[in-house]
Amino acid sequence: MTDRQPPTPNRGARVGLRLVPPRFPRADEAVQVATEARAEGPVDILFVNPPAPDRSIWIRSQHRVGRRSREGMIWPQVSLAQMAALFPDYRVDIIDAIPHRMTWETFERLLREKRPRYYITQVTAPTLQNDMYGVFLAKSLRMTTMAFGTHVTPMPRATMEAYPALDFVLRGEPELTLRELVDTLERKNDKAQISNPKSRIRNSKLQGWW
User: Fold this and answer.
1) Which domains does the chain have, with CATH numbers?
2) How many whole angstroms from its chain centre is CA 40?
3) Residue 11 — pLDDT band, cuts 50, 70, 90?
């Protein structure tokens, strides 16, 4: 009596499913802002007093809570000029949108023309959500965003959690802190470009307020 081998299964009855990975269209390269040619006269650092929510005259300053100017007084942006003066080795510019009653459409066009690497803005509590729209526009153009003022000084964590487009908050007197922060970011960028040209600064939120 011989041992009988189990019958061989019919392998031809199997149907092999071949899954082809999807090929989605890639438009990233076509719209990549970082690879676009920079416009005539770009700047490294842009200091901003953003447009008002209602195109009225608003008072913004690092020493004021912020309010609509009942008397129509234009508040000179001396604080922005002081901070800009700390960067003689950088190309800087100032946009003071309030006296021009600038619209957000005009502001966005200027932002695209100047294409700064660093965007530093005034923010106040009464106009906070409006002011952060400028931060959102800057972040969409791959700029490093910073804010200062009487609102973000006592509430840095709450502000940054509510507005993820904001990279850094400058607390208190911002001048020397801003210079230190920009120098630190530039050193990190230089090291990252040497090791990996495509690398970016990571975990900037870990030290988001200075």
Assistant:
1) 45-197 (3.40.50)
2) 21
3) low
Beta bridge partners of 128: none
For the stretch 86-110, pLDDT in tens is: 999 999 999 999 889 999 999 999 9
User: Residue written as tokens 């719209």?
Assistant: 31
Distance CA(32)–CA(27), nearest Å, equals 8
Burial class (CB in 10 A: 0-12, 13-18, 19+), 35: exposed
DSSP state letter for 207: G
pLDDT at position 15 is 62
> Percent of the chain having pLDDT more than 70?
71
Question: In this structure, what token pair is assigned to residue 197?
Answer: 């040209």
User: What's the pTM?
Assistant: 0.73
Question: Regarding beta strands 64-68 and 58-61, do their DSSP bridges make them parallel or antiparallel, or are they unpaired?
Answer: antiparallel
- Nearest Cα residue to 111 out of 151, 69, 140, 80: 140
Helix H or strand E encompassing 174: none
| 106-151: pLDDT as tens digits | 999 999 999 999 999 999 888 899 999 999 999 999 999 999 988 8
Distances, alpha carbon 106 to alpha carbons 40, 77, 203, in Å: 17, 19, 33
Contacts of residue 124, defined as CB under 8 A and 6 or more positions apart, other chains included, come to: 58, 60, 64, 65, 66, 131, 149, 150, 151
What is the 3 state secondary structure string of 59-103? EEECCEEEEECCCCCCCCCHHHHHHHHCCCCCCEEEEECCCCCCC
